[in-house]
Design goal:
Elements: E1 11-12, E2 19-20, H1 23-33, H2 52-79, H3 81-96, E3 100-102, H4 109-113, E4 117-119, E5 124-133, E6 138-146, H5 151-159, H6 166-171, H7 173-176, E7 183-188, E8 199-202, H8 208-212, E9 216-218, E10 222-227, H9 260-266
Parallel strand pairs: 3-9, 5-10
Antiparallel strand pairs: 1-2, 4-5, 5-6, 7-8, 7-10
């Protein structure tokens, strides 16, 4: 024991590595050397002395740092009046363009992902956009897409045989090999019952803004690119014999698009 020098040591201080024989000596050494007994998680450890325990300790330390940072970010985002004002302004701007833009509570995946902004000088939205290609099980996220860009131009880097990226073109070769007339762009209709999912077909020759007018958008648009020649389970509104041309579902199901996984994520 490095405190009393009488008894055999039984304990070693995680902080200063001094040996002690009893609780009394532990307390004495802490008092004498102002030691808190807590291991210094950031202390230098040479490669020769590095063990699996050190690795595990470092891993847990990084996890703790990540949790602390995430909790702080959530707290600031939740209580920031600036954030609330920006979201409110974004929704109001969208309303002026006849777009019903809705934002989710803090913690939802789509809320964290969304990077949509509005440029007051240009009077233009720059959308966060997700493209889904079901036939190839591929999806891509686009940021700062101007609202005056046509859907055809948005899709060119992905399915155009000449202008698309070679790697993307190879992955989406079913689409690039098909004529443009076979390509359909669909967007899920919000505010519908889970057992009555329907899609709107968008016009590729018109701008993103024109296609979003009169529609409900939760956080950001997600466009599904499908081919007429290939079977899919997406029912377009008005093309089902039992479906009227316009939806009659009530506003009470306004959060039907929130996926179950996102709800779990928010908790």
């Amino acid at each position: 024991c490095e405190t009393c020098s009488k008894e055999e040591a039984k304990y070693r201080c995680p902080r200063c590595m001094k040996y002690s024989c009893s609780l009394l000596c532990v307390k004495k050494h802490k008092l004498a050397q102002s030691c808190n007994g807590v291991r210094d998680k950031t202390a230098f450890v040479s490669v020769n002395e590095f063990t699996d325990l050190n690795l595990l300790s470092d891993y847990r330390f990084l996890e703790d740092v990540g949790r602390t940072a995430d909790a702080a970010a959530r707290h600031l985002a939740m209580h920031s009046s600036t954030t609330k004002r920006l979201l409110s302004s974004l929704r109001n701007k969208a309303q002026k363009f006849n777009i019903d833009l809705r934002t989710l509570p803090v913690g939802f995946t789509k809320r964290r992902e969304n990077s949509t902004t509005f440029n007051s000088t240009e009077n233009k939205f720059y959308w966060h956009l997700k493209l889904v290609f079901p036939h190839c099980h591929a999806e891509y996220t686009l940021k700062r897409v101007p609202d005056d860009k046509t859907l055809a131009d948005i899709l060119k880097p992905y399915i155009d045989p000449v202008e698309s990226d070679p790697v993307v073109c190879q992955r989406l070769k079913i689409y690039t090999a098909s004529p443009h007339s076979d390509v359909r762009i669909l967007m899920k209709i919000e505010n519908r019952r889970q057992n009555s999912v329907r899609y709107n077909e968008l016009d590729a020759s018109r701008s993103l803004l024109d296609n979003l007018k009169g529609k409900i958008i939760i956080e950001y648009p997600t466009l599904f690119v499908v081919l007429k020649t290939l079977k899919n389970d997406m029912v377009v509104l008005g093309q089902d014999a039992s479906e009227p041309a316009e939806s009659s579902d009530s506003e009470s199901s306004s959060l039907s698009s929130m996926e179950e996984g996102e709800i779990r994520d928010s908790s």
